[in-house]
Amino acid sequence: MTRIHVTDASGASHVVEAPNGESLMSALLNAGIDGILADCGGGCACATCHCYIEGDGMDRVGEANSLENLMLDSAAAERRDNSRLSCQIDVTEALEGLKVTVAENA
Amino acid sequence: MENAPETNADQNPEEFYRSPTTTPEADPWALPLEDIDLATGAIFQAQKHHEYFKRLRQENPVHYHDKNPEIGPYWSLTRYEDIMAVDTDFERFSSEPSIALFDELLGEERAPMFIAMDPPRHDEQRGAVLPAVGPVRLKDLDQLIRKRTVEVLDELPTGTPFNWVEKVSIELTTRMLATLFDFPFEERRKLTFWSEIITTPPILMGLTIEDRLNHLGECLQTFTALFKERQFEGNESQDFISLLANNPATADLEGVELLGNLMLLIVGGNDTTRNSMSAGVLFMHENPAEFQKIKDDQSLIPSAVAEIIRYQTPLSYMRRTAKEDVEIRGKQIKKGDKIAMWYASGNRDESFFPDADKFIIDRPNVRRHMAFGFGIHRCMGNRVAEAQLRIVWEEILKRFERLEVVAEPERVEHSFVHGIKALQVIAHPKGNKP
Ligand code: HEM
Ligand code: FES
């Protein structure tokens, strides 16, 4: 388990115990985090699992591939430098203490 | 025409294989399980498919049938959870060579299209056309779609019956497609015609195989000309053709390779959106209390649209092919086996949707319906389809007290496309009430 600090779409804070090896999206969805819709079930095909990765997190979560980049352009909420699709991030110990803010997904 | 895909849809309709056991008259609960052939258009036409699915979900959720000579052996998944698991696992379940049980429903084996490709080719080609339905573009489209919807609804006869499918569903869907392609608007009915040519055996349209190839040839020619015209540096247009023409992944497509993706984009959004538009009118007619809910509160329209799509499920299934031996619920599926993921069944799975057989426009988890699929092939056009359907209901509510269905709907005999051919409707205009 890896602890993730989450600010949900309505601004509330949570600490989510995320199972290693799963996607960050599944962990957030299973924790019932407000704003994670994940319409496509993790296929990088809907952009409704969009999050902002806070602090130094971007160095830890790896790079977005080209399709994710395109999907981020078509996300409902503003794309920022720290935008990622949470279904494309695998939870590992290296993410302990990661801080993420859920975008206004629609 | 050298480059047109050949087709296997050249049989005489009299000679179509029809299951001798799975018929509209058969009792879905009494047939031996192994005699159930879900790929039987007639049970969908007769709306008997729901009972078959209900039985299989209960008794045999991973079902095997090997008596259909046209398809060969295939598995059927009927539970929400199992369909979801396979749809999101492209590594073990391939979309190649075809996403229909009949290998070449759309001719995809010879005219390659990205819905029937695995990564990385799928990702490159999907990526190329994605901006056509991106959020910026959607905002512009919203206004255009509304304008065109208003034009169509304002011309409808009131007080006398007309075919809603022809006058509204086909017309609006065609206009929407013409907009996405930036296709010459006056010639838009060509798109509808080509879509029909692609999905219908020629004989059912009174055509020979040669006629069909000629029409597909004309389709390719027309699009190739537009493709060339729009292929230039600095073209920022976001229509499908400009995007395909100017993206490095697709700019060199020609002949059947180009035709394949055009066919996907023409067909993908056509019957699906059209049939949702027709089915919605039928469902609201049959469920006046649900219709009353959107009259009372228009903010429920998006949820109602999702419920219409769930309840109709315009594409009954997508097929995958196992890339390795896998076990699902104790059944041994072998590498190379065909698997149908029956969205039509998952969408009525009682363990996921309480009262699944009821049409309830404000059900809490309606957004999680399966009609758009999941995973990397999740429908690319769902936002456009939803926008078109939302707008049509908003504009209907402004004009009509109700839409009365005055005859039994005529349905399509098809196990893949779940559709309505004709729906006779009388539009009752609003009184002088505001
Ligand atoms: C209510 C309307 C619609 C329904 C029910 C629908 C349904 C589907 C389904 C079930 C899939 C396959 C998902 C999978 O394999 O997991 C799909 C894929 C696709 N749809 Fe739709 N669709 C609709 C409207 C549209 C529209 C309007 C367009 C385009 C303008 C469109 C374009 C596509 C494309 C391009 C794909 C292939 C995506 C890929 O392989 O990556 N669809 N659709
Ligand atoms: S869940 Fe759809 S893109 Fe992440």
UniProtKB/TrEMBL annotation, chain A:
Q: Name one GO cellular component term.
A: cytosol
Which is one Pfam family of this protein? Fer2
Q: Which part of the chain is the 2Fe-2S ferredoxin-type domain?
A: 2-106
Claim: Iron is one of the keywords in the record: yes
The record ties this protein, via CDD domains, to: fer2
Q: What GO terms are given for molecular function?
A: 2 iron, 2 sulfur cluster binding; electron transfer activity; metal ion binding
Which GO annotations describe the biological process of this protein? P450-containing electron transport chain
Q: Does the keyword Protein transport apply?
A: no
Cofactor(s) the record lists: [2Fe-2S] cluster
User: Which keywords does the record carry?
Assistant: 2Fe-2S, Iron, Iron-sulfur, Metal-binding
Protein family (similarity comment)? Belongs to the adrenodoxin/putidaredoxin family.
Name-wise, this protein is (2Fe-2S)-binding protein
UniProtKB/TrEMBL annotation, chain B:
The UniProt transmembrane annotation reads none
Single annotated GO MF: heme binding
Has the keyword Iron been applied to this entry?
Answer: yes
UniProt keyword annotation of Cell inner membrane present: no
Q: Name one Pfam family in it.
A: p450
Q: Which InterPro entries does this UniProt record tie to the protein?
A: Cyt_P450, Cyt_P450_B, Cyt_P450_CS, Cyt_P450_sf
Renumbered residue ranges of the record's region Disordered: 1-25
Cofactor dependency: heme
Give residue spans, biased composition: Polar residues.
1-11
Which keywords does this Swiss-Prot/TrEMBL entry list?
Answer: Heme, Iron, Metal-binding, Monooxygenase, Oxidoreductase
Q: Which family does the similarity line name?
A: Belongs to the cytochrome P450 family.
The record's listing under PANTHER family reads: CYTOCHROME P450 YJIB-RELATED, P450, PUTATIVE (EUROFUNG)-RELATED
Q: What is this protein called?
A: Cytochrome P450
Q: Which organism is it from?
A: Pseudohalioglobus sediminis
